[in-house]
Specification:
The protein has 234 residues and is an alpha/beta fold. The protein has one domain: NAD(P)-binding Rossmann-like Domain (Rossmann fold, 3-Layer(aba) Sandwich), CATH 3.40.50. The chain has 8 helices and 7 strands, in the order βαββαβαβααβαααβ. It has helices spanning 13-24, 52-66, 89-117, 129-132, 138-158, 176-179, 183-191, 201-211, and strands spanning 4-7, 28-33, 43-46, 71-74, 120-125, 163-170, 223-226. A 7-stranded parallel β-sheet has the order 3-2-1-4-5-6-7, with helices on both faces. The protein starts with a strand and ends in an 8-residue tail after the last strand. GO terms for molecular function: 3-oxoacyl-[acyl-carrier-protein] reductase (NADPH) activity; NAD binding. Keywords: Fatty acid biosynthesis, Fatty acid metabolism, Lipid biosynthesis, Lipid metabolism, NADP, Oxidoreductase. Catalyzes the NADPH-dependent reduction of beta-ketoacyl-ACP substrates to beta-hydroxyacyl-ACP products, the first reductive step in the elongation cycle of fatty acid biosynthesis.
């Protein structure tokens, strides 16, 4: 059956690949965006996830078009990388408010409808950096690590209502961001990945879609690494 799916930040990169995977499976897919709307075929809803009023308005629009959200993929995120001693409070606050608090806001709002339906799937997009750490990314690593504790708490709190909460932790993925990295930096990263290549956005999307499927109905509170093996053991 076609479900109502929301992917935050689903207008490009990994988010768009996730949105496309659900669309290809026959679901009705809405995506939030800030500046560039998604391609045709998706319900694009402009929404700043740091603003609860905009989040509420987005969910109302989606419910009117597709019905209550049954699958939430909290993907939207930003980076403001710099070394610890150079990192300003604004650098810290912006990343935490978007990546961690923003995910909390959309999960809280989605849970209201899922509780009424007595079913739902919540998937948070974290990062291998949230488990391994990365120089220059104290704020980003903290935000992505926090998603794991959030997901596991939600899993315990809402599991009896048929709602699962899981995390996908991508490694280095072929996107516009990795494409512009200096060649030496790319070689350094590749040397640390057992599979010897960057991941594809579609590979992240496949893991997310599986977690939202009936086949994964008994999986909750899990962290699924899709990282070519770079984070194994964490």
């Amino acid at each position: 059956m076609s479900r109502s799916v929301l992917v935050t930040g689903g207008n490009r990169g990994i988010g768009l690949a996730i949105a496309q995977a659900f669309k290809d499976a026959g679901d009705q897919v809405a995506v939030t965006y800030n500046s560039s709307p998604p391609p045709d075929g998706f319900l694009g809803v402009k929404c700043d996830i740091t603003d609860q009023e905009q989040v509420d308005a987005a969910f109302e629009t989606i419910q009117a078009e597709h019905g209550p959200v049954e699958v939430l993929v909290a993907n939207a995120g930003i980076t403001k990388d710099t070394l610890l001693l150079r990192m300003s409070d604004d650098d810290w606050d912006a990343v935490i408010d978007t990546n961690l608090s923003g995910s909390f806001r959309v999960a809280r709002r989605a849970a209201k409808g899922m509780l009424r339906l007595r079913k739902g799937r919540i998937v948070f997009i974290s990062s291998v950096v949230g488990m391994l750490g990365q120089a220059g990314q104290v704020n980003y690593a903290a935000s992505k690590s926090g998603l794991i504790g959030m997901a596991r708490s939600i899993a315990r709190e809402l599991g009896s209502r048929g709602i699962t909460a899981n995390v996908v932790a991508p490694g280095f993925v072929e996107t516009d961001m990795t494409a512009v990295l200096p060649e030496d930096t790319q070689k350094l990263y590749l040397s640390q990945i057992p599979l010897g290549r960057f991941g594809l956005t579609e590979e992240i999307a496949n893991a997310v879609r599986w977690l939202a499927s009936e086949e994964a109905g008994y999986v909750t509170g899990a962290v699924i690494p899709v990282d070519g093996g770079i984070g194994m053991g964490n």
